[in-house]
Amino acid sequence: MRRALSIYLVVLVAGCAPIHVPSTPRAATHRVLCYGDSITSGMLDESWPMRLASSRPDLEIINAGKIGDTSNSAPRFADWLARGSYEWVVILIGVNDPMAGTVDSTITVRNIGRLVGLARARGASVLVLTLLPVTRPRGETEPFDLQTFTRDVSRGLVSVYAGSRRGVVLGDLRGAMTGPDLNGLSDDGLHPNAAGNAFIAAFVAGLLPPARSSP
User: Fold this and answer.
1) Which residues contact 168 (CB under 8 A, 6 or more apart)?
2) Dihedral in degrees, nearest 10, Cα atoms 110, 146, 66, 161
3) Which pTM does this prediction carry?
4) Gap between the Cα atoms of 63 and 197, Å rounded
5) 86-129: pLDDT as tens digits
6) Sign of torsion, CA 184 190 133 210?
7) Which letter, b or e, does each residue of 77-109 get, where b requires 16 or more Cβ atoms within 10 Å of its Cβ?
8) How many CB atoms lie within 10 A of CB 5?
């Protein structure tokens, strides 16, 4: 009887002891908001954020591109920021500003600065991309030179954001996409084609750090 009781007590005490099960690390995911115009929103089922999501499974990509949008879109941007938290915000916008009446590149740079400030205030790191090179010729009825405008905006962004700035990274996409061997990245001289979207996605992927697994 005593032997049986002893065995019972040993089993009971062992059953009360905590059991430690090795935890499985959760898959790392960073939420990334991609903000811009039609260059970001893409056409049909083709966009650089979609390709970025395919190449970086550690990132949850939210495409907030809107056709025809301009840098003077802080309220829409703030609305997207209010929808959730993001580790990173990628900003690529400004090419439509002249069509909306903003032909001064310094105003566009200042508008983008407002967007950067809003994102930083929400705790997100920001990747600012310079504007794509425009290769299509200027239309006879266009009162502005889009090639010069996008060049000047890009130079302004480089001047403001190049170097160390806490929480903000500059990606000189225009510089990376400029060259005789890169003419096949756009069919209309303005929007990226499939090859262009793949190029932008790879460029952005190389600038966003990997998400780290958490226990």
Assistant:
1) 116, 120, 125, 126, 128, 161
2) -30
3) 0.85
4) 13
5) 999 999 999 999 999 999 999 999 999 999 999 999 999 999 99
6) negative
7) beebbeeeebbbbbbbbbbbbbeeebbebebbb
8) 9
